[in-house]
Amino acid sequence: MEVLGFAKMAEEAFKYLTDSAVWMAFTVKGLKILGIIIGAVIVKHLLKAAVANAFKLRVKSPLKLLSERREATLMRLLDNVISYVIYFMALLTVLSEFVDIKALLAGAGVVGLAIGFGAQSLVKDIITGFFIIFENQFSVGDFVRIGSFEGHVEEIGLRTTKVKSWTGELHILPNSSILEVTNFSVHNSIAVVDVSIAYEENIEKAQKIIERVVREREADFPEMVKPPEVLGVHMLGASEVVMRVTAEVMPMTHFKIARELRKSIKAEFDKEGIEIPYPRMVTISKDQNPAADAKKP
To answer: Where is the Mechanosensitive ion channel MscS C-terminal domain (predicted)?
Structure first.
């Protein structure tokens, strides 16, 4: 009996697999699904291109309501939203080829409630991401410090934020984990240059040299907002006198300007003979026979 039952099942399976109507139905559904996927990809690219062109027109417009940083952030966010919406609609359309989508949506409320308890962190990420963008805490292109990560913001999404460090690493942070942010790109920066000279050098001469150098180099840096200030002696170290120079510059340009000022001051000190302190070793040689020296007249 078992052999007859197995043979009957095999026969029915063979008839099903060799039925041309079945293969025709599979072919039609496969072509529909392929068309849905291709259509979703095309629509996504068209919408993203439309958004990019819309922002390009806003850049050329004489009336600008948003800054470039803000526009770049919103453009990236809209790209993410378009991708999520298009892919979700494509998924529902594909599922409608196999199941009753209305019944599926009707049961989605109960299923969504069950999933919601397990996806609280996801909801928290999205809400936090919304407030980051709404409050303009930071934007794409800003240099920020988030926790132990520091770098330029590559992307702000509804769920995650991407920060690229200066060494090339890309840090992907859930928005809900962003508790404290230090934004270096909002206000002007301060370039601080500390110059050390030896105690034996003339402080007044060194200060005049520094003032002359920063005055001459000021025209070379359009990033400077205010003229540099030579504050004078900042600290007296164990073997050095530290003099400080400060300059208010545009955001995130203080590293470059500080390096250039140090280079110019060092070159001028070398010309003027101003010595910069360096570690020294003093060797005291004692006579092996001090008693003999004591007998000498």
So the answer is: 192-276
